[in-house]
Specification:
It contains 8 helices and 11 strands. By secondary structure, it is of the alpha/beta class. Helix 3 packs across helix 5 and helix 5 (about 165-180) packs across helix 7 (about 195-200).
Length: about 230
């Protein structure tokens, strides 16, 4: 059994501000991307494929992979315009994988426990995603700024990464997605995560796996403060 992790680090980090991309900002002395790579490096995962902004390949190889000894990183490939283009680039760079873990590099706090639960689930269910129960009451808007209904919080989950799939399944769904890209855009349908690609282009159900409320995505300066606090309590 071969497990491949695709770690996405191609974001521009516009909401973070400044000239340094969020994945390269230092948090407690290490780049944000370091923590996700370290989790996969120390796990059962066999190989890591990094997807970075075009032009960042050499920098990541030198300043991230070589500097910190991430020898499971086998390839560094350039991403595309949209997230799904970057994911597909990672999928195409993978070879011989049985299961593919797709993870946002800005989620610095993925743990071995989460990865183990995802592996157990994907072996049974073919597709799964780390997630946590929604804490807040969620209301559905009617389209004009008023509440249409209040959703049952007990059935609502906040989706995280990793999102994990049988390799053949996610490859097929992404090939269908790219072939249908123009039609989806014309219909105003945005594929915002990997599970949505599987939901749209297959009949495989996605299993929800317990993630962690600490498994936040570093997006804003405030998230950096929270992230440093999480690191201090570990």
């Amino acid at each position: 059994m071969k497990c491949t992790a695709i770690v996405l680090a191609a974001g521009s980090g516009r909401r973070m501000g400044g000239n340094v991309k969020k994945q390269y900002l230092e948090m407690n002395g290490f780049p944000v991307i370091y923590y996700a790579l370290k989790a996969f490096q120390e796990s059962f995962v066999d190989e890591i494929i990094m997807v970075v902004s075009p032009g960042d390949e050499e920098y990541c190889g030198r300043e991230i992979v070589s500097r910190y000894g991430f020898d499971k990183v086998r390839r560094i490939v350039p991403g595309g315009k949209e997230r799904y283009n970057s994911v597909y680039a990672g999928i195409m760079a993978s070879e011989g994988a049985d299961y593919i873990f797709i993870h946002d590099g800005a989620r610095a706090f993925v743990t071995e426990d989460i990865l183990e639960r995802c592996l157990e689930s994907v072996q049974k269910n073919r597709a799964c995603v780390a997630a946590v129960k929604a804490k807040d009451t969620i209301k559905l808007e009617d389209g004009s700024g008023f509440v249409k209904e209040t959703l049952n919080r007990n059935l609502l989950w906040t989706i995280q990464t990793p999102q994990v799939f049988e390799a053949a399944l996610i490859r097929d769904c992404y090939e269908r997605l790219l072939a249908s890209e123009a039609l989806l855009l014309a219909k105003g349908i945005a594929i915002t995560d990997d599970t949505m690609a599987v939901e749209t282009f297959s009949d495989v159900k996605i299993h929800l796996v317990e993630g962690s409320y600490d498994n936040i995505k570093i997006t804003t300066p405030e998230d950096m403060v929270v992230g440093e606090a999480i690191l201090r309590k570990r």
